[in-house]
UniProtKB/TrEMBL annotation:
Record keywords: Membrane, Transmembrane, Transmembrane helix
Topology versus the membrane: Multi-pass membrane protein
Main localization of the protein described in the UniProt heading: membrane
Pfam families per the UniProt record, alphabetical: TB2_DP1_HVA22 (PF03134)
Segments passing through the bilayer: 49-69, 101-125
Protein name according to UniProt: Protein YOP1
Location of the protein in the cell: Membrane
Matching InterPro entries: TB2_DP1_HVA22
Source organism, top-level taxon: Eukaryota
Annotated Gene Ontology cellular component terms: membrane
Family classification: Belongs to the DP1 family.
Record's keyword annotation contains Transmembrane: yes
C-alpha cells in the first residue's frame, strides 16, 4: 500500500496528471461548441470529453481487433464449440443438442455468407469481424446460450412456417427444452418425414 502511495506522490506522476487534466480541459472547451455533446453530457452526467475519448478508444480497439479478427473469429467459432459439441453428443441429455446444432447452423451461415459476399459485407460494416466475434461468443457461451435463444425465437418459427407451407399444415408445436418432450417432438418429426 505504501509503494502505491509513493508512486502517486512521485513528481513525474503528478506532472503527468496535471498535463492530462489540462488537455482534457482544453478538449472539453472545444467540445462545448457542439450542442449535441452538451445535451448528451447533461442527460448522462458523463463529461463530454470522457465520452469523446471513450468513443475514439472504442473505434481504435474495433479497428485493431478487426485487423486480425478473421482468423480469430474462426478460431473462436470452432475450438470451444467443437469440444462442447462432442461433450453434447456423448451426454445422454437431448436439450444440449439443440444448443450445438443451432450453433453450427448459424456459424455455417456466417461462413457461407463470407464465402461470396465478404467484400460487400465489409463495405457496409467495416468492423464485421469484430462484431462477428462478439456474436459468436454470445451464441456459444453457456452463460448466454444464445444459439438456443436464436433457435427458439428465429430459426424454429421460420422453419415451422416453411414446413407448414410445404406440408399444407398450420400446426406449430411449442418449443420445449425438457428431454422427454423433445424426444416426443423428434419422434413426431421422424414419423412425419417417413410418410
Amino acid at each position: 500500500m505504501a509503494s502505491a502511495q509513493n508512486v502517486k506522490q512521485h513528481p513525474a506522476v503528478i506532472q503527468a496528471q496535471n498535463k492530462a487534466n489540462y488537455y482534457v480541459g482544453q478538449l472539453d472547451k472545444e467540445l462545448s461548441r457542439y450542442p449535441a455533446l452538451t445535451a448528451f453530457e447533461e442527460r448522462t452526467q458523463v463529461p463530454k470529453a470522457y465520452a469523446f475519448l471513450g468513443g475514439v478508444i472504442l473505434l481504435f480497439v474495433l479497428h485493431a481487433v478487426n485487423t486480425f479478427a478473421s482468423p480469430v473469429s474462426n478460431i473462436l467459432g470452432w475450438a470451444l464449440p467443437a469440444y462442447l459439441s462432442i461433450k453434447a453428443i456423448e451426454s445422454p441429455a437431448q436439450n444440449d443438442d439443440v444448443q450445438w446444432l443451432t450453433y453450427w447452423v448459424v456459424f455455417g451461415f456466417f461462413n457461407f455468407l463470407e464465402s461470396f459476399a465478404l467484400r460487400i459485407v465489409l463495405y457496409y460494416l467495416p468492423w464485421y469481424f469484430a462484431f462477428k466475434s462478439v456474436f459468436i461468443l454470445w451464441l456459444q457461451l453457456p452463460a448466454f446460450r444464445g444459439a438456443e435463444t436464436l433457435y427458439g425465437h428465429v430459426v424454429r418459427p421460420a422453419f415451422a412456417t416453411v414446413q407448414a407451407k410445404t406440408n399444407g399444415t398450420t400446426t406449430n408445436p411449442p418449443y420445449v427444452e425438457t428431454p422427454s418432450q423433445a424426444d416426443t417432438l423428434r419422434d413426431r418429426a421422424a414419423y412425419a418425414t417417413s410418410e
